[in-house]
């Protein structure tokens, strides 16, 4: 899981991806995906689905994650 934040200063961190709010993703504000803070969570922690990440955002996050983990 990649946590999100709306804190403006986070947009200048390395290994983040900005995600604009949309009806599809259900975000209430533009957010930064903090790829460098990836964590594992139990499926029980997910109570409800608010939206779905666009394919373009998922691809950008995957590229950052591969770079972060040196997976080439």
Structure report:
The protein is of the alpha+beta class. It has one domain (4-68): SH3 type barrels. Helix content is 19%, strand content 14%. It has one helix at residues 55-68; strands at residues 4-5, 16-19, 31-34. A 3-stranded antiparallel β-sheet has the order 1-3-2, with helices on one face. The longest helix has 14 residues, at 55-68. 11% of the residues are buried. The mean pLDDT is 95.
- Gap between N and C termini, in Å? 20 Å
Strand fraction: 5-15%
Highest-level CATH class? Mainly Beta
Structural class assignment: alpha+beta
Name the shape in a single word.
globular
CATH-assigned fold name: SH3 type barrels
Question: Portion of residues in helices?
Answer: 10-25%
Total domain modules: 1
User: Which CATH architecture?
Assistant: Roll
Calculate Rg over CA atoms: 12 Å
Number of helices: 1
Index terms:
single chain, alpha+beta, SH3 type barrels, 1 helix, 3 strands, 19% helix
Summarize the structure.
This protein has 72 residues and is of the alpha+beta class. The protein has one helix at 55-68, and strands spanning 4-5, 16-19, 31-34. Helices cover 19% and strands 14% of the residues.
Which helices and strands, and how do they pair?
Layout (H helix, E strand, L loop, with lengths): L3 E2 L10 E4 L11 E4 L20 H14 L4
Antiparallel strand pairs: 1-3, 2-3
């Amino acid at each position: 899981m990649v946590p999100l934040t709306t804190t403006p200063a986070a947009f200048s961190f390395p290994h983040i991806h900005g995600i604009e709010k949309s009806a599809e993703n259900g975000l209430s504000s533009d957010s930064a995906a903090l790829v460098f803070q990836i964590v594992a969570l139990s499926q029980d922690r997910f109570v409800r689905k608010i939206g779905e990440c666009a394919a373009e955002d998922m691809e950008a996050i995957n590229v950052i994650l591969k770079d972060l983990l040196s997976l080439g």
